[in-house]
Design brief:
Layout lengths: L5 E16 L7 E15 L5 E3 L5 E2 L1 H10 L4 E7 L5 E8 L11 E2 L16 E3 L5 E3 L7 E6 L10 H16 L4 E6 L4 H7 L8 E3 L4 H5 L4 E2 L1 E5 L5 E6 L4 H4 L5
Parallel strand pairs: 1-7, 1-13, 3-6, 10-11, 11-12
Antiparallel strand pairs: 1-2, 3-4, 5-6, 8-9, 10-14, 14-15
Length: 249
């Protein structure tokens, strides 16, 4: 293994990607398909590395020896911090991962945060130039939308209308909701993709790491935080009514 620079190609399998397609005058139709999301993540010999079994940090030399002595036994996984970046890594036995036949790692939904729990902290930088720090957002409702890219068939007028309606209905009641959307898109791609209309959220460029931080397997997916930063509700796009029908105060 090269001690100068090691490149890890992380392939994550999105379990189910949903799209809402509205056909008039029919009822909304839901289509589903499976998709692969690939990210190139670089690890160097100076990157913090942890042994998943013990939870302890190990040196690069120990990590390299574990791989050499046990070929095919381990997998290197990035750990995503509150900025949505892979700032450290862990070595995990493959038997502990949900690995698909194509080599992709499927997110384990059992490891997702649960309703009533505080969401692990985040710091997101929106397309509007503002920083959104979960600690500083306490006292407000926060709607987090987890996307792959802002493009069809997932990102459509119909798919964002349910969000804008929810935000607007609560705004009329005097309840403001901070709404953010994660994506793989770069800032320039976001500017090209976001139409000149209210999409219901502030896009957060190059933030797909948050999907992995919170073990989001299905996109679009939404988490609503209460004013204390705890999870009030969570649902895939196809079940957004779980969130939109809540009475907020």
């Amino acid at each position: 293994m090269n001690f100068g620079r090691t490149e890890i190609f992380l392939q994550l399998l999105i379990a189910t990607i949903c799209s809402l397609a509205y056909a008039q005058p029919e009822e909304p139709k839901v289509t589903r398909y499976n998709g692969i999301v690939s990210q190139k993540i670089v690890m160097t010999k100076d990157s913090p590395i942890y042994d998943h079994a013990s939870g302890k940090r190990i040196t690069y030399a120990v990590y390299d020896e574990m791989l050499r002595k046990n070929p095919g036994l381990y997998r290197t996984q990035p750990i995503f911090d509150k900025f949505g970046k892979a700032s450290s890594f862990e070595i995990v036995k493959k038997s502990q991962l949900l690995i698909q036949d194509n080599g992709g790692v499927m997110q384990n939904s059992d490891l997702m945060p649960e309703v009533g729990e505080p969401l692990p902290p985040f710091v997101m930088h929106g397309l509007d130039g503002k920083e959104y720090n979960s600690e500083k957002l306490k006292g407000k409702y926060v709607l987090l939308g987890f996307w792959v890219k802002f493009e069809k068939p997932l990102y459509t007028f119909a798919s964002t209308k349910v969000i804008t309606d929810f935000i607007e209905e609560n705004r009329k009641k005097g309840i403001d909701i901070v709404s953010l959307g994660t994506t793989l898109n770069t800032e320039d791609e976001c500017l090209d993709a976001i139409p000149k209309r209210n999409c219901g959220f502030v896009p957060v460029p190059e933030s797909y790491g948050f999907n992995q931080r919170y073990k989001i397997s299905e996109t679009p997916y939404f988490i609503l935080l209460d004013k204390k930063g705890n999870i009030k509700a969570m649902a895939p796009h196809t079940e957004f009514s779980t969130i939109s029908e809540l009475v907020l105060r």
